[in-house]
Write a structure and sequence with these properties.
The protein is an all-alpha fold. 76% of the residues lie in helices and 0% in strands. 0% of the residues are buried.
Amino acid sequence: MSEIGHNSKTLREYIERIERLEEDVQETRDEIRDVYIEAASKGLDKKALKEIVRLRKKDLEEVAAHEAVVDAYKVALGMQMELPLAPTK
């Protein structure tokens, strides 16, 4: 019986920790949303900001390689006149 009591106490502690962390995550999401709203009120494009935030999480070479492929596809579909020059290091 004490084994079950110990397990339920431990289980409750873990559940409560997880719940507190989930509350923190939701608060952080709300704060991020508020920053996007504030930026939009200053004339910034929310979609562009989100894209930049996403790109900054990636490796620069990976981003450049992906953008090169997208540019090549645009040229092939007539959506872009020519490939942009490769950046120099």
